[in-house]
Write a structure and sequence with these properties.
globular, five-stranded antiparallel beta sheet, alpha/beta, 2 domains, about 45% helix, Rossmann fold
Length: about 230
């Protein structure tokens, strides 16, 4: 039975989610504490996490950011805010979906099922393979615990920020991230770095990880939008 963690401080909403998900065969755990939600998500084996953004102690954005550093399970953010800024921020931090309240419980169940199927498919196909020991995409292997990158079995030396940028993009394949999002995620919102910093690091990464004639390119420029990592 697949396990779902709900982190939501509105009991009426969390109980409604629990009821519908349990009726559809999921094992559901609920907490109304942000810090407790992060602890549970990191220490236990859940297949998917549903996060409310506005939480006591620790907000959903912070939980998503920290959880994504450790695990590659689907994350769905819930919010009463309809602003695109919050949606872009959440997806930029690694969330897989963003649902605006109020929402249909049946829609939530459908999205949960879709993300679980997608994750299972990606884990089992020859595209991106995520395991505890790292991420492998074609001839490129990334090992976050050892901070090593191999191309066709040969190690590539990367600077610290180059590694963090590559790992973040590879952990979120096929999603376009703007320069501002990458700066916030890798360098931090208070960093003096700017868009030119991203441009330089992307160029260096391509020079190091891409062999001449490799198609598709690992890191693709989406003109006017940003960059994405191709599976």
């Amino acid at each position: 039975m697949q396990r779902i963690l709900i982190v939501e401080d509105d009991n009426s909403i969390s109980e409604l989610q629990r009821d519908y998900l349990e009726l559809n065969g999921y094992d559901v755990t609920v907490t109304d504490s942000g810090s407790e939600g992060l602890r549970l998500a990191l220490e236990e084996d859940f297949d998917l996490v549903i996060l409310d953004i506005m939480l006591p102690e620790m907000d959903g954005f912070s939980i998503c950011r920290q959880l994504r550093l450790e695990k590659e399970i689907p994350i769905i953010l819930l919010s009463a805010k309809k602003d695109d800024v919050d949606k872009v921020r959440g997806l930029g931090l690694g969330a897989d979906d963003y649902i605006v309240k109020p929402f249909s419980p049946n829609e939530l169940v459908a999205r949960v099922g879709a993300h679980l199927r997608r994750f299972e498919r990606l884990s089992g196909m020859g595209g991106t393979v995520r395991r505890d020991e790292g991420i492998t995409v074609r001839s490129l292997s990334i090992y976050p615990k050892e901070r090593r990158v191999l191309r066709s079995g040969k190690e590539i030396k990367l600077a610290n920020k180059e590694f963090e940028l590559l790992y973040f993009l590879a952990s979120n394949p096929n999603i376009v991230f703007s320069k501002d999002t990458l700066l916030d995620r890798i360098w931090g919102i208070d960093s003096p770095a700017d868009g030119a910093t991203i441009t330089v690091h992307i160029k260096r990464l391509r020079d190091k990880i891409q062999l001449p004639g490799d198609k598709p390119e690992y890191i693709e420029t989406v003109w006017g939008a940003g960059y994405r990592f191709n599976m």
